[in-house]
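> run fold Aminotransferase
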Amino acid sequence: MPELKAALNQLGNTRLAQVQPSAIRAVDQRISPIPGIIKLTLGEPDFAVPEHVKAATQQAIADDVSHYAPSMGYPALRQAVADYLADRFDAHYSSEEVIVTVGATEAIAATLQALFNPGDTLIVPTPTFPLYAAVGRLQGLNVVEVNTAPRFIMTPELLARTLAKHPDAKAMIVNYPGNPTGVTYTHAEVQALAKTVAQTNLLLISDEIYAELTYDEEHLSLGKLLPEQTVLISGLSKSHAMTGYRLGYVAGPAVLTKQIGKMHQYLVTTAPSPIQMGALEALTNGRHDPQVMRAQYQKRRDIVLQGLTAAGFTAAQPGGAFYLFAKMPARFGTDDVALTYRLAEDAKVGLVPGSVFGPGGAGYLRLSYAASEANLKEAVARIQQFCATH
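> ok
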């Protein structure tokens, strides 16, 4: 193994040094060797990619669709994204206002790098997916994390208080339905938020990756309500179980997407060509594919919600996604990290401590119910047994 020249030991991005590796992945890796453990840690659908989407991707490979695609994505796919957003969510964009990205993660990174400068203030309601704050800090942004517990939504009142403290804020990232809570905004709540933001010069970066997985009310997109102040980010990882395909997209006003597209071009050049053909199939002939998954997720949600409630946990009703964010029984205190590892070792159930998702997450555990009913029922039974004996 080569040893680095001593004079080079100090090399490294100082901002990167301030950001920790993914705590979710770290927990998952630590508990994975435990024999017999049921892992409900990662936010990944357990369904297979729809057969017709796989067939379209395979056909593209067979047809030698193997060269560079246009940097912003194939025109047909960009149009398909625009048509899909109009049809499903009444959010209207031209194909030129759509950029095809390597997953929603790259879309977020490209957006933050393209639109903001070091020192700009970014509001991040928490608890939420740790990526947002991490990418913001890597960009040198002033990330203001706002605790939204226990309702887990950014209300107009909370936003007003936040802007009073940070009047120079340039943008806010919202994610609904949300990871890790599964909570989503009702129509009245998202309309109230949009009305408040419209009175400011704040840009909304709206991550709506779970929009197809809502249970109690149809998703209402900020791309519909406030298109002039919204950059909409989504993808096919959750709706079509295409996590490994890494296909996302950005839509927004052309002035902004032109800049984001330039950053995207320098980050990745283009999304993989055969994957774009699979995405085109998903968005044209597979718009109903999420319905089957959504029905199963809702059934699973009810299983784990009832089971954990019986074990003494409490949780906000998950209106979407496939997560339950459960508040620990009082007798276990608030050390969610310690309880996570106790459950892993003693009950052989893998969860994620809520504190890794930012302020408001301490004392909670995240459970991903993107797993089989059999595993969920067994996991709940093990948690109930643990709580009854500890």
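The chain has two domains: 15-48+290-389, 52-285.
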